[in-house]
Amino acid sequence: MTITVNHKRLQVPASHHEMSLIDYLREELELTGVKNSCGIGVCGACTVLADDRPVKACRLQVKD
What we know:
With 64 residues, this protein is of the alpha+beta class. The protein has one helix spanning 21-28, and strands at 2-5, 8-11, 47-50, 53-56.
């Protein structure tokens, strides 16, 4: 799987396909500007753009 983060295309290893997007961004890419607050998608602190739409990263999984 390939994703684009901050205008850089990255290959996501298969071993990470079941991680939440917020965990992948924070733990693997060290992008700590993405905040994990409620963890259930209510507060919006983890909002990122995916396909030019705001989404809550704590609610998405990195997978095909």
